[in-house]
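Wed. Picked up where I left off yesterday with Sigma-70 family RNA polymerase sigma factor. The coffee machine is broken again, so keeping this brief.
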Amino acid sequence: MLAMRQPEPLTIDDSLLLEKVKDGSTHAFNLLFEKYWEKAYSAAYKRLKNGEDAKDIVQEIFTKIWLNRQTHMIENFPAYLHVAIRNNVIKSLSKQKHFHPFFDILENIPEKNSQADANLLWKEFFKSYEELMESLPPKRQIIFRLRYQEDLSTKVISMKLGITRKTVQNQLGKAIETLRVSLLRILTIAIILITTS
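Structure written out below (tokens, as returned):
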């Protein structure tokens, strides 16, 4: 008699897997991990450009899911994973020297907020970020993007643009101050609106 073939992880309903995980099923947890590992890793790597850091973030997220399986209710797993990856990426970046403290306020966003609220907050935040970036003087904007979005050193930027390293550092300082003050105010208002709604 032929043995019944086990269903592929991708075909198993998330809510069923989560229910079994809540009951302590390591098999269901492994299936959930297998189903979403590659997607989660790709999302983290896309933001961090570092394979080890991306793996650590995904591992940490799934570890917390297992440890909090009986108390943390997850209704939409892809949406939950998206938010968890984004927040953990921010935490990881905030520990790096080239990332700036105006993102620390993100730690104060309560986890109880609905994912719809969180997604709306981030959409508005990054829309405001891009608008502020566009408002910077052209050369200052280029320098900022090269440093913090392409992760080039001030020395490389100075050589690339044919200006002194001191000029690069001065322009970065002015750009950071503009963004820090403006984005912190925008984000604070958004958080107040969410937490009091």
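Quick read: The two ends are 60 Å apart (CA to CA).
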